[in-house]
Amino acid sequence: MEILDEIKSVAKIIKQTDNIELYSQILDIQGCIMELLQQNNDLRAQVDELQTKLKTKEKLVFLNNAYWIENSDQKDGPFCSNCWDTKQIMVRLLERHKGIYSCPNCKNDVRSEFMDMDLGPLTINNLW
Fold it and tell me: φ, ψ for residue 75 (rounded to 5)?
């Protein structure tokens, strides 16, 4: 925050000269800089969040009415397709009965006869 420190130094010097109008302007500039720094931090956080979502999306595979995350030779899931498609949140489906999974977030049920099968690495070709 070098620029903020410089503004504080200038404000201190101007305050000593008893120039109230100039001191007031410096304080206004300092406030604007603080707002810009906060906006910059907010935007950086948004970029980080979007990059994380993009990385997740690149690993997603839609299979058996749910999303799965594929990492080299491992799979993770199932995750609710409704929650991801509408809100971009990954919510793990919970098995209620054999072949019937439920989302604890949106309460959707997913029926899948393939969920319990070991399909190996997830690809569409594994279904045929």
Answer: -130, 150
Q: What is the DSSP string of 6-49?
A: HHHHHHHHHHHTT-HHHHHHHHHHHHHHHHHHHHHHHHHHHHHH
Q: Read off the pLDDT of residues 33-58 as tens digits, 9 standing for 90 and up.
A: 999 999 999 999 999 999 988 988 88
Residues of the domain holding 78 = 64-120
Residue 80 contacts residue 67 (beta carbons within 8 Å): yes
Flag whether 12 is in a domain: yes
44 lies in the same domain as 74: no
| pTM of the predicted model over 0.70 | no
Tell me which of 16, 36, 54 is where a domain ends: 54
Q: Count structural domains, the chain.
A: 2
Angle between helices 2-16 and 20-59 (to 10 degrees): 170
